[in-house]
Amino acid sequence: GNQSSAKMFGAELSNGKLCNAKLYSSSVSSTELSSADMSDANLSGANLYRANLAGADISRANLSDASLFGADLSHVNLSSARLRGTNLSRAKLSDANLSGANLSGAKLSGANLSGANLSSANLSHAKLSGANLSSADLSGAKLSDANLRGVDLTGANLYYANLTNAKLSDAKLY
Questions:
Q1: What is the DSSP string of 80-134?
Q2: Rounded CA separation 134/155 (Å)
Q3: What mean pLDDT is predicted for residues 2-24?
Q4: How many helices (H) and strands (E) does the chain have?
Q5: What is the CB neighbour count within 10 angstroms for residue 10?
Q6: Computed over its alpha carbons, how large is the radius of gyration of the chain?
Q7: Comparing 17-21, 46-50, 84-88, 116-120, which segment has the lowest mean pLDDT?
Q8: Structure-derived torsion over alpha carbons of residues 149, 152, 157, 158, reported in degrees to the nearest 10
Q9: Reported pTM
């Protein structure tokens, strides 16, 4: 379905099929989308403020410049998703699959990424201050010029991660 600029505040769409949907610049804040299939969807610029997307498949989707502030994205599949410049501040991303995702310039301050798979993800210029990355897999991730101030990296896998010019002051490394 092509629903560009749709408004779905508080809608119930859990387990829904929205694959290949075009919802760019839409407002779906506080919407229930848990376990929905949104793979390959275009959600660029969408407002998903505090939406519940827990367990959803959002792989290969375009969420560039979208707002997911405070959204529940725990156990979500965001592999190979485009999240460039996306606001994920205070989002719950524990145990999420973000492998190969492009998060360059994304805002992840205060986000919970504990146990998340960020292998080979591009987090260059991302703002991760105060984020929880404990036990996260960051192997092969690009974190150049990222703001990692005050980040919890306890038990995180940083094997072959690129941390060139990353800001790590007050980061918890063990």
A1: T-B-TT-B-TT-B-TT-B-TT-B-TT-B-TT-B-TT-B-TT-B-TT-B-TT-B-T
A2: 6
A3: 59
A4: 0, 0
A5: 10
A6: 15
A7: 17-21
A8: 10
A9: 0.90
